[in-house]
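User: quick one - fold this with FE2/S2 (inorganic) cluster bound?
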Amino acid sequence: MSEKSYSPIAVDLEKDRKYAWCTCSHSSNQPFCDGSHRAHNKPPSLGFSVEEDKKAYLCTCKKTGNPPYCDGSHKN
Ligand code: FES
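Assistant: Sure. Structure tokens for the protein plus FE2/S2 (inorganic) cluster:
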């Protein structure tokens, strides 16, 4: 297999906190944005928040159809 394999990262999200999910893959703070998209001229992060404290599996392959959440697309 030549492609790097990805899997989601489990994170504990806090109600009403603002998060920035990395969309470009260059962040070294996956699954969150660290600003690397600027140096790589890539699209910015996706901002999101949750309505209650919860654990979520955030996508790292960036192929999910339901960003920022893993939808199983990394297996394809
Ligand atoms: S890591 Fe599962 S869809 Fe991207």
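One thing worth noting: The pocket of FE2/S2 (inorganic) cluster is lined by residues 6-8, 59-61, 63-64, 70-74 (CB under 6 Å).
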